[in-house]
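dumping the sequnces here before i forget
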Amino acid sequence: MIVADKKPIEEIIDMVKGYQKILIAGCNECVTVCEAGGKKEVGVLASALRMYFMNEGEKIEVDEITLERQCDHEYLEEIRNSIDQYDAVVSLACGVGVQFMAEKYFGTPVYPGVNTCFMGVTEERGVWSERCQGCGQCILGKTAGICPISRCAKRLLNGPCGGSTQGKCEISKDLDCAWQLIIDRLKELDRLDEYEEIAPIKDWSTERAGGPRKVVREDVRQ
Amino acid sequence: MRLRYPDTIRIIRVPCTGKVDLIHILRAFEKGADGVYVVGCMEGDCRFDNGNLRARKRVEQAQAILDKVGVGGERVKMFNLSSGEGPRFVEYAVEMTEKMEEMGPNPIKIAMQKAA
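..and the predicted 3d for all of it:
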């Protein structure tokens, strides 16, 4: 899922100061799971904003809605008939949702309510970590299901480097060396001979370095 | 025991303090409550394993938010006791009431009255 973190309330207050009526829009997908922008967080943020502005003697109306997703037309269309009554929207979706909302409702200011961080997993409640950088050419089949692009600080394709010590990365004692994990798992799978194969230079044009990306599939396109 | 505790307190019964969500605490302040305290079982004695520990986290979250919005995080507190400790229940009720008297009314309540 896409992992996001909450933005400090002060930052959101600064963004919406001066507006009379705002909509807090949550998203039922990834940001709900990582407890940053789901229905609960929408309620909490709306309540906090109402209290802050009431306390400041400013009259502001704060409405709440949580859409199934903010990265698809059909769900964003649900607010088409009501969007014009708001001076601004604070979207608690990931950066994708915020942008799609802004694209769709061109005349309404849309502000981000979360900091979008990465694609990752829930290690345990309250702990999320990165697993994928969306490089566009998955090599997990050759690396025992452990991604050196997202989990090695140097994104090495033929690791480990000299900074790997007792299974940990040199940038942090708390960070596993991805290549140690790969070797351990290849050993477990009895595929260690694959480690001897030198990975060729990766085509980074499918990664972000090649500019904004797009997937077009004519087989499903209408 | 027929113990007396301050009559300004409204008790909201929940099956476990783990049921108390952050939004419940915040809504109470939005509606004008001067203070909110959550009374859970002793830590380690939760019938549902960690309900009271979750409640503590939520109380801490509420404290942080209330500080930021100018209401004051000290207006919300978590207490723990066993079901047999009636006198301690009264102690906590008195402690919280005295604290609220010292802090004065919830500023949101005053702002709402001004706005009305």
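Chain B has four helices and two strands.
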